[in-house]
Design brief:
- By secondary structure, this protein is α+β, with helices and mostly antiparallel strands.
- It is 52% helix and 17% strand.
- It has two domains: 2-132, no CATH class; 150-227, Alpha-Beta Plaits, CATH 3.30.70.260.
- It has helices at 2-9, 17-41, 49-69, 73-83, 95-112, 116-132, 164-167, 169-175, 206-215, and strands spanning 150-159, 176-187, 192-201, 220-227.
- The protein has a four-stranded antiparallel sheet with strand order 2-3-1-4.
- A hairpin with a 4-residue loop joins strand 2 and strand 3 (192-201).
- Helix 1 crosses helix 2 (17-41), helix 2 runs parallel beside helix 6 and helix 5 packs antiparallel against helix 6.
- It starts with a helix and ends in a 6-residue tail after the last strand.
Length: 233
Amino acid sequence: MLEFLQTQLETGPLPTPLAIGVRLVAAMVLGGIVVFVYSRTRAPEDVVGSFKTTLVLLAILIAMVTQVIGDNVARAFSLVGALSIVRFRTVVRDTQDTAYVIFAVVVGMAAGAGDPWVAGIGIVVVAFAAYLMRPPVLIPPPEQPAGLIRPCSLKLRVRSSQDVNGIVVPVLDQYIEGRRLKSMGTVSDGSAIEISYEGHLTADDAAEALVHVLNEMDGVESVQLQRRKTKGD
Protein backbone atom coordinates (compact mmCIF):
# COMPACT_ATOMS: atom_id res chain seq x y z
CA MET A 1 0.00 0.00 0.00
CA LEU A 2 2.78 2.44 0.94
CA GLU A 3 4.71 1.53 -2.21
CA PHE A 4 1.59 2.28 -4.31
CA LEU A 5 1.15 5.71 -2.71
CA GLN A 6 4.84 6.50 -3.14
CA THR A 7 4.65 5.57 -6.81
CA GLN A 8 1.62 7.79 -7.40
CA LEU A 9 3.15 10.71 -5.52
CA GLU A 10 6.45 10.64 -7.39
CA THR A 11 7.04 13.65 -9.59
CA GLY A 12 7.04 13.24 -13.33
CA PRO A 13 6.58 15.29 -16.49
CA LEU A 14 3.02 14.05 -17.12
CA PRO A 15 1.22 12.74 -14.03
CA THR A 16 -1.53 10.25 -14.72
CA PRO A 17 -5.16 10.95 -13.70
CA LEU A 18 -4.74 8.38 -10.92
CA ALA A 19 -1.65 10.19 -9.62
CA ILE A 20 -3.48 13.52 -9.72
CA GLY A 21 -6.41 12.05 -7.79
CA VAL A 22 -4.12 10.52 -5.16
CA ARG A 23 -2.31 13.82 -4.68
CA LEU A 24 -5.55 15.78 -4.26
CA VAL A 25 -6.92 13.25 -1.77
CA ALA A 26 -3.61 13.38 0.10
CA ALA A 27 -3.88 17.19 0.18
CA MET A 28 -7.41 16.90 1.59
CA VAL A 29 -6.26 14.51 4.32
CA LEU A 30 -3.25 16.66 5.19
CA GLY A 31 -5.48 19.74 5.24
CA GLY A 32 -7.75 17.92 7.69
CA ILE A 33 -4.73 17.28 9.92
CA VAL A 34 -3.92 21.01 9.77
CA VAL A 35 -7.48 21.73 10.91
CA PHE A 36 -7.10 19.23 13.76
CA VAL A 37 -3.91 20.98 14.93
CA TYR A 38 -5.64 24.37 14.60
CA SER A 39 -8.65 23.23 16.67
CA ARG A 40 -6.51 21.69 19.42
CA THR A 41 -4.05 24.55 19.84
CA ARG A 42 -6.38 27.56 19.68
CA ALA A 43 -8.70 28.81 22.39
CA PRO A 44 -12.28 27.50 21.84
CA GLU A 45 -13.69 31.00 21.36
CA ASP A 46 -11.09 31.75 18.66
CA VAL A 47 -11.91 28.68 16.54
CA VAL A 48 -14.03 29.65 13.51
CA GLY A 49 -15.93 26.93 11.63
CA SER A 50 -15.66 28.60 8.24
CA PHE A 51 -11.93 29.08 8.72
CA LYS A 52 -11.47 25.33 9.22
CA THR A 53 -13.24 24.64 5.94
CA THR A 54 -11.07 27.27 4.25
CA LEU A 55 -7.88 25.53 5.39
CA VAL A 56 -8.91 22.19 3.88
CA LEU A 57 -10.04 23.72 0.59
CA LEU A 58 -6.90 25.84 0.45
CA ALA A 59 -4.67 22.76 0.75
CA ILE A 60 -6.54 21.04 -2.11
CA LEU A 61 -6.48 24.13 -4.34
CA ILE A 62 -2.78 24.70 -3.80
CA ALA A 63 -2.14 21.05 -4.68
CA MET A 64 -4.06 21.61 -7.92
CA VAL A 65 -2.13 24.80 -8.70
CA THR A 66 1.19 23.06 -8.05
CA GLN A 67 0.34 20.33 -10.56
CA VAL A 68 -0.86 22.84 -13.14
CA ILE A 69 2.41 24.80 -12.89
CA GLY A 70 4.80 21.83 -12.81
CA ASP A 71 8.20 22.96 -14.08
CA ASN A 72 6.77 25.53 -16.49
CA VAL A 73 8.02 28.99 -15.43
CA ALA A 74 5.86 30.83 -17.97
CA ARG A 75 2.76 29.07 -16.66
CA ALA A 76 3.72 30.02 -13.11
CA PHE A 77 3.89 33.73 -14.00
CA SER A 78 0.58 33.46 -15.88
CA LEU A 79 -1.14 31.98 -12.83
CA VAL A 80 0.32 34.68 -10.56
CA GLY A 81 -1.09 37.34 -12.86
CA ALA A 82 -4.50 35.66 -13.02
CA LEU A 83 -4.77 35.11 -9.26
CA SER A 84 -3.64 38.66 -8.47
CA ILE A 85 -6.99 39.87 -9.83
CA VAL A 86 -8.75 38.24 -6.86
CA ARG A 87 -8.88 40.51 -3.83
CA PHE A 88 -9.85 39.43 -0.33
CA ARG A 89 -11.21 42.02 2.08
CA THR A 90 -11.71 39.74 5.10
CA VAL A 91 -9.34 40.82 7.86
CA VAL A 92 -7.58 37.96 9.66
CA ARG A 93 -8.41 38.36 13.34
CA ASP A 94 -5.12 37.00 14.68
CA THR A 95 -1.62 36.75 13.23
CA GLN A 96 -1.57 33.11 14.31
CA ASP A 97 -4.44 32.43 11.91
CA THR A 98 -2.20 33.74 9.13
CA ALA A 99 0.40 31.15 10.12
CA TYR A 100 -2.22 28.39 9.72
CA VAL A 101 -3.10 29.72 6.26
CA ILE A 102 0.57 29.43 5.26
CA PHE A 103 0.63 25.99 6.92
CA ALA A 104 -2.21 24.80 4.69
CA VAL A 105 -0.57 26.33 1.62
CA VAL A 106 2.75 24.54 2.23
CA VAL A 107 1.04 21.22 2.97
CA GLY A 108 -1.01 21.47 -0.22
CA MET A 109 2.05 22.44 -2.23
CA ALA A 110 4.01 19.46 -0.87
CA ALA A 111 1.16 17.09 -1.76
CA GLY A 112 0.82 18.55 -5.24
CA ALA A 113 4.57 18.36 -5.85
CA GLY A 114 4.65 14.70 -4.81
CA ASP A 115 6.77 15.22 -1.67
CA PRO A 116 4.77 13.68 1.20
CA TRP A 117 7.76 13.56 3.57
CA VAL A 118 7.97 17.35 3.69
CA ALA A 119 4.26 17.56 4.55
CA GLY A 120 4.40 14.75 7.14
CA ILE A 121 7.51 15.92 8.99
CA GLY A 122 6.38 19.54 8.78
CA ILE A 123 3.01 18.72 10.33
CA VAL A 124 4.66 16.93 13.26
CA VAL A 125 7.07 19.81 13.97
CA VAL A 126 4.49 22.58 13.55
CA ALA A 127 1.92 20.71 15.68
CA PHE A 128 4.47 20.24 18.46
CA ALA A 129 5.45 23.92 18.37
CA ALA A 130 1.82 25.09 18.29
CA TYR A 131 0.95 22.82 21.22
CA LEU A 132 3.80 24.19 23.32
CA MET A 133 2.78 27.79 22.61
CA ARG A 134 -1.01 27.39 22.85
CA PRO A 135 -2.69 30.29 24.71
CA PRO A 136 -3.78 29.78 28.33
CA VAL A 137 -7.47 29.78 29.23
CA LEU A 138 -8.62 32.97 30.92
CA ILE A 139 -9.78 32.33 34.49
CA PRO A 140 -11.69 34.81 36.70
CA PRO A 141 -9.55 36.33 39.46
CA PRO A 142 -9.70 34.13 42.61
CA GLU A 143 -10.80 36.98 44.87
CA GLN A 144 -13.95 37.58 42.78
CA PRO A 145 -17.00 35.29 42.50
CA ALA A 146 -17.00 33.46 39.15
CA GLY A 147 -20.60 34.48 38.52
CA LEU A 148 -19.87 38.20 38.70
CA ILE A 149 -16.84 38.53 36.46
CA ARG A 150 -16.63 36.88 33.04
CA PRO A 151 -13.71 36.94 30.58
CA CYS A 152 -14.62 38.73 27.36
CA SER A 153 -13.22 40.12 24.12
CA LEU A 154 -14.43 43.36 22.57
CA LYS A 155 -13.96 44.57 19.00
CA LEU A 156 -14.79 48.17 18.11
CA ARG A 157 -14.78 50.10 14.87
CA VAL A 158 -14.42 53.85 15.40
CA ARG A 159 -14.13 56.65 12.86
CA SER A 160 -10.51 57.71 12.54
CA SER A 161 -11.46 61.34 13.18
CA GLN A 162 -12.60 60.51 16.72
CA ASP A 163 -10.44 60.52 19.84
CA VAL A 164 -10.51 56.87 20.92
CA ASN A 165 -8.95 57.50 24.33
CA GLY A 166 -11.31 60.36 25.00
CA ILE A 167 -14.65 58.75 24.08
CA VAL A 168 -14.16 54.99 24.45
CA VAL A 169 -11.69 54.34 27.28
CA PRO A 170 -13.75 56.05 30.03
CA VAL A 171 -16.74 53.87 29.14
CA LEU A 172 -14.66 50.69 29.09
CA ASP A 173 -13.28 51.49 32.54
CA GLN A 174 -16.84 51.26 33.92
CA TYR A 175 -17.69 47.84 32.50
CA ILE A 176 -14.42 45.95 31.90
CA GLU A 177 -11.71 45.22 34.47
CA GLY A 178 -8.16 44.16 33.67
CA ARG A 179 -8.55 45.48 30.13
CA ARG A 180 -5.65 45.07 27.72
CA LEU A 181 -5.28 46.12 24.10
CA LYS A 182 -5.05 43.09 21.79
CA SER A 183 -4.82 44.70 18.35
CA MET A 184 -5.40 47.99 16.52
CA GLY A 185 -5.44 48.84 12.83
CA THR A 186 -7.09 50.94 10.15
CA VAL A 187 -9.91 49.62 7.94
CA SER A 188 -12.11 50.99 5.16
CA ASP A 189 -9.18 52.68 3.42
CA GLY A 190 -8.14 54.46 6.60
CA SER A 191 -11.50 56.02 7.36
CA ALA A 192 -11.99 53.92 10.50
CA ILE A 193 -9.94 52.26 13.24
CA GLU A 194 -10.62 48.70 14.42
CA ILE A 195 -9.59 47.96 18.00
CA SER A 196 -9.70 44.68 19.95
CA TYR A 197 -9.60 44.41 23.75
CA GLU A 198 -9.59 41.57 26.27
CA GLY A 199 -10.64 41.74 29.89
CA HIS A 200 -13.33 40.78 32.41
CA LEU A 201 -16.88 42.09 32.65
CA THR A 202 -17.64 43.66 36.00
CA ALA A 203 -21.06 41.94 36.18
CA ASP A 204 -23.25 39.49 34.30
CA ASP A 205 -25.50 42.27 33.01
CA ALA A 206 -22.59 44.53 32.04
CA ALA A 207 -22.41 43.10 28.51
CA GLU A 208 -25.80 44.43 27.39
CA ALA A 209 -25.25 47.79 29.07
CA LEU A 210 -21.79 48.20 27.53
CA VAL A 211 -22.96 47.40 24.00
CA HIS A 212 -25.91 49.78 24.37
CA VAL A 213 -23.73 52.66 25.61
CA LEU A 214 -21.14 52.20 22.87
CA ASN A 215 -23.78 52.02 20.14
CA GLU A 216 -25.20 55.34 21.28
CA MET A 217 -21.82 57.08 21.09
CA ASP A 218 -21.02 59.33 18.15
CA GLY A 219 -18.16 57.97 16.05
CA VAL A 220 -18.58 54.31 17.01
CA GLU A 221 -19.55 52.40 13.84
CA SER A 222 -19.78 48.83 15.16
CA VAL A 223 -19.46 46.88 18.42
CA GLN A 224 -18.83 43.16 18.84
CA LEU A 225 -18.63 41.71 22.36
CA GLN A 226 -17.90 38.04 22.95
CA ARG A 227 -17.80 36.20 26.25
CA ARG A 228 -14.85 33.86 26.58
CA LYS A 229 -15.14 30.40 28.08
CA THR A 230 -13.55 29.47 31.39
CA LYS A 231 -12.58 26.10 32.83
CA GLY A 232 -15.79 26.09 34.84
CA ASP A 233 -18.04 26.43 31.77
